[in-house]
From TrEMBL:
Protein name: Heat shock factor-binding protein 1
GO process terms (BP): cellular heat acclimation
Upper lineage: Eukaryota, Metazoa, Ecdysozoa, Arthropoda, Hexapoda
Organism: Glossina fuscipes
Family membership: Belongs to the HSBP1 family.
InterPro entries: HS1-bd
Length: 84
């Protein structure tokens, strides 16, 4: 009996995914549709968050490299760097 229910839930999940044009007809279908919608939003948010963090890390690395290059150029020119 549990297998039948799981199979029905799986079928409902597929029928009422975000890519489906089927409209939910009852509370169970609506619940599944909303759960799929929220999961999709959460997945997209996580992907965007990961991309932003990666870009911030890359920018931090570039800034560190730039600071090192400036310090090297200042040393080569014989100019003292700012005191820290």
């Amino acid at each position: 009996m549990t297998d039948i229910k799981n199979e029905m839930d799986s079928d409902l999940d597929q029928n009422y995914s975000l890519n489906s044009n089927a409209d939910p007809k009852n509370m169970q279908e609506l619940t599944i549709y909303v759960q799929n919608l929220l999961q999709n939003v959460q997945d997209k948010f996580q992907t965007m968050s990961d991309q932003i963090i990666t870009r911030i890390d890359d920018m931090g690395n570039r800034i560190d490299d730039l600071e090192k290059s400036i310090a090297d150029l200042m040393n080569q020119a014989g100019v003292e760097g700012p005191e820290k």
